[in-house]
Design goal:
This protein has one domain: Vaccinia Virus protein VP39 (Rossmann fold, 3-Layer(aba) Sandwich), CATH 3.40.50.150. Strand 6 and strand 7 form a beta hairpin. By secondary structure, it is an alpha/beta fold. About 35% of the residues lie in helices and about 25% in strands. Helix 6 packs across helix 7.
Length: about 200
């Protein structure tokens, strides 16, 4: 995966998220999958490489990110469809249904900016790192997923360890079955949610 200014540099945690998904859904499954806030496209590209029979889509509000994601898909010789869409005013996939929705959204609060490495602040776009509100960001994903997930579909999220419980409560309160998972450092960093009938 090539990264340029304009997209988040893929982290180990995102690799762990992809590995978890692949562990739960074997090769014979045929799924339609959307990655919300795709950035460099690393998640759908990695999934397509391992599950060529899946249909993979990625959305992002950034034209720069989408251009980089398309280059990365071409470089990896995989078929992933990328589209411009705004999480807070989504429209592109309104008539679609997905078996899985995945998102590693911006989840660092502005108050934590001073704690970040200078290299991160200098190289990576603020819109890919920071969110004004955990509730607003993950609430928008909850709303979109309620609309776009097919019956028995699943939502996978990457989280900030400090707000994992808050996100879990948000989904529980909106009638989702929730499973929090720790990363290799034993910190709560991933969430699997399924909408209850």
């Amino acid at each position: 995966i090539k990264v340029e200014p304009g997209v988040l540099i893929p982290r180990q945690e995102t690799e762990e998220l992809v590995a978890w998904i692949l562990e739960l859904y074997p090769k014979e499954t045929e799924l339609t999958v959307l990655d919300v806030g795709t950035g460099s496209g690393c998640i759908p590209i990695a999934l397509k490489n391992s599950r060529p029979n899946w249909s993979l889509y990625g959305s992002d509000v950034s034209d720069t990110a989408l251009e980089i994601a398309r280059k990365n898909a071409s470089y990896n010789e995989v078929d992933v469809e990328f589209a411009k869409d705004d999480l807070f005013q989504p429209s592109h996939f309104s008539d679609s249904k997905f078996n899985l929705i995945i998102s590693n959204p911006p989840y660092i609060l502005p108050s934590e900016k001073s704690n970040l490495d200078q290299e991160v602040k200098n190289y990576e776009p603020e819109e890919a790192l920071f969110c004004d509100s955990t509730q607003k960001m993950y609430g928008a994903i909850e709303k979109l997923s309620t609309q776009l997930l097919s019956k028995n579909g699943a939502l996978f999220l990457e989280l900030h360890e400090d707000t994992a419980q808050e996100v879990q409560e948000l989904y529980l309160n909106n009638n989702w079955e929730v499973n929090l998972k720790n990363d290799y450092g034993n910190k709560p960093r991933f969430l699997l949610a399924k909408k209850l009938d």
